Amino acid sequence: MPFASLNDRALISVSGPDAEHFLQNILTTDLDALAAGDAKPGALLTPQGKILFDFLISRAGENAFRLECRADISDDFVRRLMLYKLRAKVEIAKAEQAIVAIAWGDESTASQSDSTAVADKRFPDGGVTRSYGGVAQSGDIAAWQAFRISHGIAESGADYPLSDAFPHDVLLDETGGVGFRKGCYVGQEVVSRMHHRGTARRRVLIVNAEQPLPGAGTELTVDGRPVGTLGSNAGTTGLAIARIDRVKAALDAGQQIMAGDIPVSLAIPAWAKFSYPQETVGAEGA
Known about the structure:
Blueprint: E1 3-6, E2 9-15, H1 19-24, E3 38-45, E4 51-59, E5 64-70, H2 74-85, E6 91-94, E7 100-104, E8 118-120, E9 128-132, H3 141-150, H4 188-197, E10 202-208, E11 219-222, E12 225-234, E13 237-243, H5 244-253, E14 257-259, E15 262-267
Parallel strand pairs: 3-8
Antiparallel strand pairs: 1-7, 2-5, 2-6, 3-4, 4-5, 7-9, 8-9, 10-13, 10-15, 11-12, 11-14, 12-13, 14-15
């Protein structure tokens, strides 16, 4: 069973009598649907609906939650949560040392003796668990990144910058990261309108090439016109956030999509429910 320890992650604890109500009112994740033993993705948005912080959230006992996020944004995340705290009866604290171990594959099931092991629900087919605490072991980080990329799971930093993407862009609406039946949260109006009007046009796609892909940030183009941007890659397979209407137009016209000077093909993740638009629109617009 492959595994890796991730040394670029941090853990934030939110606990207290008002913890669930507090988080439910500001985060995209529907905590009413968060079962013990599961870790779901989510985001804290700007009022304009763009992702300010992304994370995985899991229950850490009664009236307690664990938010796993990038280490380099964790202090800012704590400060932002504190701004929303007001008079809520919650304690917000960052763990002094965070050890995040991840395992994947058919045999990746939570250990009965590890009370922190949770299922990473971003992967609809299962088989991915995360554990917190214990002793750090390096494992095969490159293999983990290749697995994540091959399954179409985007993460901020590696695949998109914060404050630039909507939840739909990075498929949080498809991985359980957005609750469309819960009440209001920061940025909810924009996200709900995008969802119900079906106006999401930027989506994560899996990129494949016959030679190693260029680095993150490389534009995807068709006849010199941008259709998207590359994120992380594992050799000849990578992720991109692309305009699916423009990609569909290129496919219909038999035009080659390029990543820099490398021809590529794009595919919707196998588990995703969205599809290319039936009618393409003009290339103008956001």
